[in-house]
Design brief:
Arc Repressor Mutant, subunit A, Jelly Rolls, 278 residues, alpha+beta, globular, 3 domains
């Protein structure tokens, strides 16, 4: 498909709070306007922004960061069409993330239009592309809160310090919940409610103590259970469904990534070993 004819894709991983957009922009002028959400722009061609009484060119592979309520206009000259990745997020979700950072209680001000922080750009692109697929709800929300946390720490005026308390009892409770409910498509919000914490706080505390974010831990619990089922002779498609993966292909990718072989190969190898022992 020609990039110029590609239809835009718009989806809401967290309804009413986060909207993601990927598609083709044929160039031209977007007139001056404002919106309630914060906006992040990643473009593969230069774009000129009129923002806060100045004109600034957003270079490719840089993030454009527009504060909630700030009027702005944009222009690009690419006539062949270029790919844009956008993120809109509500002031409420940014504030709820900020409030978990050293008791930061005000909506962060993000003063700079251009963000050249390579690690933050890489994190944005990873989050955006991953959420185009079919991740679990837990992975989806975790990636968003991890990105928003780093956005505040790296881009806000007077950023708060990142202090993570060791809440072993809470982490233990969350780990046990994920082990007992490994097949559920549990959301980060639901998980946080079980321990009376905010989602952003839970992500940081869990990641600090366990060394993995909640969605990665969930995947590893699922894979461990999947191995047991495969050893018992269950079919790969049956195991994928029983352990909470979105589909057979997603299960196979995750299994091979962590084990170096496909579930089918693992099942066959286990069977060969069992046949030799019989």
């Amino acid at each position: 498909m020609n990039a110029h004819s590609e239809k835009p894709k718009i989806w809401q991983p967290i309804p009413l709070q986060v909207t993601l957009w990927r598609g083709c922009d044929s160039g031209g002028v977007l007139p001056r306007h404002a919106h309630e959400e914060f906006q992040i722009v990643l473009s593969d061609v230069p774009c000129e922004f009129s923002y806060r009484c100045s004109n600034t060119v957003l270079s490719p592979r840089h993030l454009g960061l527009i504060q909630s309520g700030e009027p702005h206009a944009s222009r690009s000259d690419d006539s062949t069409g270029h790919t844009l990745r956008l993120m809109f997020f509500s002031p409420e979700i940014l504030l709820s993330t900020a409030e978990t950072l050293d008791e930061f209680s005000e909506l962060p001000i993000l003063p700079n239009l251009i963000v050249s922080d390579a690690l933050l750009i890489e994190q944005f692109l990873h989050m955006h592309t991953t959420l185009e697929e079919t991740p679990s709800q837990l992975e989806c929300e975790t990636l968003i809160f991890e990105f928003l946390t780093q956005l505040i720490l790296r881009c806000a005026e007077n950023p708060p310090s990142l202090q993570v308390s060791q809440e072993s009892a809470i982490v233990k409770q969350v780990r046990e919940y994920l082990q007992d409910n490994y097949a559920e498509n549990v959301s980060l919000t639901q998980l946080a409610q079980t321990v009376d914490r905010t989602p952003a706080h839970l992500v940081r505390v869990f990641s600090k103590e366990v060394g993995l974010p909640p969605h990665v831990y969930q995947t590893q619990v699922r894979i461990a259970r999947a191995k047991t089922l495969l050893m018992q002779g269950h079919l790969v498609a049956t195991v994928a469904q029983a352990t909470g993966f979105a589909d057979h292909a997603h299960f196979s990718r995750q299994f091979k990534r962590l084990n170096g072989i496909t579930p089918k190969q693992y099942r066959q190898n286990i069977k060969n070993v069992q046949d030799l022992l019989d």
